[in-house]
Amino acid sequence: MHDRQDGHGHQNTHPHEHGAEKGAGAVTEIEKLKKMMQYWISHNEEHARSYRLWAGRAREAGFEKPGEILEEIASEVVELNERLIKVIQMID
User: Fold this and answer.
1) Helix 29-60 vs helix 64-91: angle between axes, to the nearest 10 degrees?
2) Position 70 in a domain
3) Predicted structure pTM score
4) Does some domain include residue 71?
5) Rounded Cα gap, residues 3 and 67, in angstroms
6) Tally of domains within the chain
7) Higher pLDDT among residues 48 and 13, named by residue
8) For residue 43, what are the domain limits?
């Protein structure tokens, strides 16, 4: 997890990872897991957009193969998100 701003747009905006006090209204580990996966999906979408943006810029600069690789990485991130969505559906 990112606990600081690290120079590429990450900030301490992820869901709270520490457990709630035991008792009425306590957040279960599964509920926390779902929140974390939702955060990861959103975060991954940001990265995929950035990879695609830079893929286009690389291609415009005449670097076709690096642009192609960045596009592939973006597609892999989308596939990763699809798998995370499946996990959320399984535990929902």
Assistant:
1) 160
2) yes
3) 0.71
4) yes
5) 30
6) 1
7) 48
8) 37-91
Nearest to 51 by CA among 35, 27, 39, 69: 69
Contact between 14 and 32 under an 8 Å Cβ cutoff? The reply is: no
DSSP class of residue 62 equals T
Contact between 39 and 14 under an 8 Å Cβ cutoff? The reply is yes
Fill in the amino acid letter for 77. V
Q: What is the identity of the amino acid at 62?
A: G
The residues near 57 (Cβ < 8 Å, ≥ 6 apart) are 67
Q: How many residues does the chain have?
A: 92
Residue 30 lies in a domain: no
- For residue 49, tell me if it sits in a domain: yes
What pLDDT sits at residue 91?
92
**20-63, pLDDT tens digit by residue?**
444 556 789 999 999 999 999 999 999 999 999 999 999 999 99
